[in-house]
Amino acid sequence: MARIIEFSGTVLTAPDQERHGLWAVDGRLTFERPPEGPDVVLGGWVLPGFVDAHCHIGLGPAGAVDDDVAHAQAMTDRNAGTLLVRDAGAASDTRWLQQAPDAPRIIRAGRHIARTRRYLRNFAVEVEPEDLVEAARKQARAGDGWVKLVGDWIDRDAGDLAPSFPAAAVRDAVSAAHDEGARVTAHCFGEDTLDDMLDAGIDCIEHGTGLLPRHIPRFVEQQVPIVPTLINIATFPDIAARAEAKFPRYAAHMRGLWERREERVLEAYEAGVQVFAGTDAGSVIGHGRIADEILTLHAAGLPAAAALDAACWGARRWLGADGLAEGASADVVLCSEDPRSEPETIRDLKGVVLRGNLVR
Predict the structure, then answer these.
(1) Measured in whole angstroms, how far is the alpha carbon of residue 201 from the centre of its chain?
(2) How far apart are CA 203 and CA 343, in angstroms?
(3) CA-based radius of gyration for the chain
(4) pLDDT for residue 2
């Protein structure tokens, strides 16, 4: 590790705040010029390391992956500029990765909690409603302050999306997790599931494709953010095509959710709902795609600075992580151009510094 790194370019401490003069000394940021000269000088626009707020390091298409695969996933994310991950459910225990100095910082949520035979095989702890509260308590203790519920999935008997658990069970499970000091997020594709989750006092919603005008005031009032995972929602037409023969109603529903995905995200953002960037990497979606998600949020109508904020300053503040602040860990990315006016610059970062180490 270079003991002193000088960042010679413009430093974006917030979407609308610029500073000049930033150094990393022994892995910590400072705005005070050190008495010694730098070992390395890095140019470019400086931002806090990106946040992937919905990522699954340690998970693959068949469930848990070996440690070497999990490490490779983490390196792919890191090299793309993701230096903080909010794990949204992993089938393998990745606590060891939290001790790896070359890996992104990970805030773990334990395992998904799903209804029996109502989710992807080998991904989740599967329980019936009467066991949901205890499962929520257990995963709250196993994670780093987050619990992940699978709020809905296809009900093969009904032939369509349906809530996974009765509303009362969800309410009790969320309350139990809160008692353990954890926040709760939920996978939600459908419309009706959102009502149950908001009634239960949920802390975050993943995907949120079923968002309707009636929901938006409640999201704002209850300060519930959404992580839309738009690059994952792009797979809905393929899901619908595979399901068409056996479940035509479900297929039509998924297509409808996909068709309205962008307008729903924009409506939520414009109403004041917090929107954060998450790729859903780990099963269908490959790792290292945080730039794609940021740019897809921008394409949906979010201003470039807001799309960046969804994976940068605002996301770090939401998760209680430092940004570009005095004494913070030197976890930064560098862009060749101002990403607020040239968003595509984030696809080819000029540099990535993690814990004061120039890793790219």
Answers:
(1) 20
(2) 30
(3) 20
(4) 76
The pairing of strands 183-188 and 204-207 is parallel
In tens, the pLDDT along 60-88 reads 999 999 999 999 999 999 999 999 999 99
H-type helices in 143-281, by residue range?
167-179, 191-200, 216-222, 230-233, 236-243, 248-259, 261-271
Q: Cα(144)–Cα(182) distance, rounded to whole angstroms?
A: 8
Question: Cα–Cα distances in Å, from 49 out to 167, 297, 348?
Answer: 38, 18, 14
Question: Residue 154: helix, strand or coil by DSSP?
Answer: strand
What is the pTM for the complete model shown? 0.97
> What element of type H or E holds 78?
helix 67-79
SS3 63: strand
Residue 243: how many CB atoms within 10 A of its CB? 18
Dist. CA 330–CA 352, nearest whole Å:
10
What token pair was written down for 153? 């999935």
- Distance (Å, whole) CA 11 – CA 172: 45
Residues 358, 360: Cα–Cα separation, whole Å: 6
